[in-house]
Amino acid sequence: MVWTTYAGEVRSSRRLGWRIGLPAVILVIAALSMAPSRGTVLPLRADGVMVEPGGVVATVPAGSDAAFVPGSSVLSSANRSDPAVSAQIDDDRRWLSDGDIPGHGTRYHAMSERALLDLRALTSPTGALIAAPVTAWRHVWPRDASFAAAAYAVTGHDDEAADVLGFLARVAPADGEWEARYLSDGSGPPDDRPKQLDSAGWVLWAVWLVSQTAEPDVAAEVLEDMRPAVIASANAIVGSLEDDGLPEPSSDYWEKEESELTLGVAAPLSLGLRSALALAPQLGVEDPFVWSNAARRLDEAVAREFGAHGYPRTLPDGGADAAVTFLAPPFAPSTPEVSAAVRDTEVALRVPNGGHRPGEAWRKDVDVAWTPETALLALALAGNGDRDDADRLLTFLDDYRTPLGSLPEKVDSEATPASVAPLAWTSSLVLLTLAELEDGLPVVPAAD
């Protein structure tokens, strides 16, 4: 139907062109290309992931009517008289008890517990954290892995946080310019997708957060392993800045090629430089003047250029974007301007099912909620003290988990979980939001 309508409108514009000329045709087609589209939403690929005896991870098909043994990632249909099955259940329960479950005792306890167990299942013994357990998602995104390391750290699972960052240390580029994603065996990228500047910022933040929250011996190990990557990443961010203090255009969390600078790149790079500055004394970087000078220039440019327009996706009027959350706690100290922009963005990006799309400029599937963006807004609202609104978004995420309790990538226009599940990024963000609401999270300080 969409194609028929579009084709008919193009034919009409061609007839119109005979009368008013080619410029009018171009304007009409341009307007059509900007119109929202319902697109095609992938149905739910899996209800979740299970762990078989011996630690083998497998997907559970959508619509399977399966259930888990409580406190584990073992299906209730497994033979519990098998010692290996019992051992796996005990191992999951022991692991949970060794850390914290944010939201314990609240309606979110089950969501939090499943998010932790799903993250564990998505993390290989080598520390490779895959984004989701199917097809093209079975790769390691530095961004997703960084959020997982942070979630592990704030829930008391320091070893897993160190493992995830250890994998990143092994694949870290010498020039600090991270690939968009890596094969889970650490052998390199899966394709020729362009590099993403924002990855450097997320990795630096994760290292800083783990250094703040992990046990001292684990933190020291992480800092030693990640020192070369931290220095290279910070230098790469400095090298990306242009005369106006802002970085060059790059792909960001929308995973698409960009010709204009987005807030989704500028904000994480600000976060990364501030994180590097905070880490400098622990890393033995005696005079990080270049980093501090660049951090001030970048922060001033973000406030001057993006802040003057209400923090849009692109300058000057690229519309509201969930990336504004990257400027809010725990990523930066709270300011009235950013807090107001977060609240405005939450309203602007809300879709009928109660979740949120990535941005106003997102033209596909305009009635579909993306759970990472919804969770990012929940985290920022929690960090700004807007507890009721954060709770509303957490309730949405809790209500639309899969039948096995995992967090999907999307909730479609029919209010049904869609695409892949579990999604590591959303699982991590839910855990971070619940931790923020309970005890608060460390906030990366402003550049001096």
Automatic annotation (TrEMBL):
Keywords: Membrane, Transmembrane, Transmembrane helix
Source superkingdom: Bacteria
Signal peptide: none
An MF annotation (GO) of this entry: hydrolase activity, hydrolyzing O-glycosyl compounds
Regions that span the bilayer: 16-35
Keyword Cell wall biogenesis/degradation recorded: no
Cytoplasm as UniProt keyword: no
GO annotation terms (biological process): carbohydrate metabolic process
InterPro entries: 6-hairpin_glycosidase_sf (IPR008928), 6hp_glycosidase-like_sf (IPR012341)
SUPFAM superfamilies, per the entry: Six-hairpin glycosidases
PANTHER family: GLUCAN 1,4-ALPHA-GLUCOSIDASE, TREHALASE
Name of the protein described by the UniProt record: Glucoamylase (Glucan-1,4-alpha-glucosidase), GH15 family
Classification of source organism: Bacteria, Bacillati, Actinomycetota, Actinomycetes, Jiangellales
